[in-house]
Amino acid sequence: MNQEKANGLFQIKFNLKSLIVIVLLGIGLYFLFPKIIGIPQALKLLVQVNKGYLGLAIGAEIASYIGAATLLGVILIRLGYKVRFWDRFRIGSIASFAIHFFPVGSFGEGAVDYYFLRKRNVETGSILLMFVLRLIFTYASFLLIFLVGLALVPTAPMLKFSPKLISLILFALVFGGVLYMFYLYQHKERFYKLWRRFARFTDAFLSKIRGKEITPVEEDEVFEDIYKGMGLFSKKKRASVFAFLAAALYWLGDITCFYFVFLGFGYHISWGILIFGYGIASLVGMISFIPGGLGVTEGSLGLLYSGLGVPSGIALISILVFRLFSFWIWIPFGLYSFISLTRESK
Question: Phi and psi at residue 290, in whole multiples of 5°?
Fold first, then answer.
């Protein structure tokens, strides 16, 4: 694929309709939450909030984006490219803006990443492999953190027996799944057969949305990219550790932001319950196909934490503020990053 064709394929266009929908939905959420918990109680919690903890929450969220930029840098260096940190940080910060205001949701984010990395002379094949590797390290670290959270749930005080049992069952299932993935990597033929079944099942669903099916050749290319990417880092243990730690920082920064928000409202939430609710809600948001899991994530978090014994008023206002820090305030910075990177590219 030549440069002119690549630039034409990944042409970036602003989606005004998405902007209007997201702004209206955001306004609706901010009016809805105080009514759910009661306006007097919401105002009381906001007035009494510990601003120091909220400052720490914002710092933790910045650390999350630093982790994302570091992971991108480690992968690019392993592929033979060097992109300065400030550029990587801005490219990563565009995500919360791009997935809502450019066409096709998260594919818009991928197009933006592709466009700006190509402008920094990263080859197309390397960018596609970067996407695969970033996905592998990001969700491998997510699973490990989720496992730790599930293991900590039974230690939470005053928790009913049923959530403890559910957490232990989920721990066994996730841990068994991780071991099975290691087994598949050691047996490529079985891995390939499972991949084909998974790709067929996924494409049967996604093709209804996209209106286009993935060909068997494209499925094989993606599989080879995944296997090649895993092999590329398996031979370099130090690079693998750095990439995994950077991905873990991405998730832990976001989770720690949530923890400090709870502390800001005077509630000391158990780390097990925090990670359990965060992990389940994140998964629900991912499979909802709604950009950023908007509305789905907030609703899932509210139901989970209320069911796990967190006072509903504190849970809902904490969710609202957390999503403000982790999602909404990054949209203007993402717009700035997009504009500044575009100008530099020109």
Answer: -90, 125
